Amino acid sequence: MDQGVRSAEFGPPGPLRNRLVLLILRGQKTATSSLVSDYDVEGEPLPEPGELELLLNSNDRGVAVLETIAVTIVPLSDIPWSHVVAEGEGHTSLTDWRRDHEEYWAAHSPAGQLDDSTPVVMQEFRVVERLVAD
Questions:
Q1: What is the spatial distance between Cα 63 and Cα 91, in angstroms, rounded to a whole number?
Q2: 24-58 b/e with 16+ CB inside 10 Å = b?
Q3: Is the pTM value of this prediction over 0.70?
């Protein structure tokens, strides 16, 4: 891979990342959500359409190349149902999605207190190359 390609890590290594990577490789997960503040804290630029990322598994091994299709920033209160469905994680309501994401961000993000106005990055992507078989 080109050294300019950044890595895509969906959750910390372990069961959550394993599940999310599998959903991506199966084509069930084509979107993700993150906090703008996390990019700020890490000094990372926001993803951009056309950008390629190396999807890492729990062993930090590249398993696929993802291409960002779209990036939209919205307040937490404005996440649409269509995005929740594209995340492919089985949430049955916006309330269910928000609860799970707020719990995750509280445990893994330096964002601090979240509220309806917290900026969220909605990223859509596609697998452009698989590097491993199922």
A1: 25
A2: bbeeebbbbbbbebeeeeeeeeebeeebbbbbbbb
A3: yes
Which amino acid is present at 74?
V
**Quick one: fold of 6-124?**
Sulfate adenylyltransferase (3.10.400)
Q: What is the per-residue pLDDT across 35-71, written as a single tens digit (0 to 9) for each?
A: 999 999 889 999 999 999 999 999 999 999 999 999 9
Q: Look at residues 60, 84, 71 and name the one whose alpha carbon lies nearest to residue 8.
A: 60
Residue 109 CB burial class (10 angstroms; 0-12, 13-18, ≥19)? middle
Q: What percent of the chain has pLDDT above 90? A: 85
What token pair was written down for 107? Answer: 């445990």
Return the structure tokens found at 83: 């995005």
| All structural domains of the chain with their residue ranges | 6-124
Q: To the nearest 10°, report the CA torsion of 37, 39, 25, 108.
A: -50
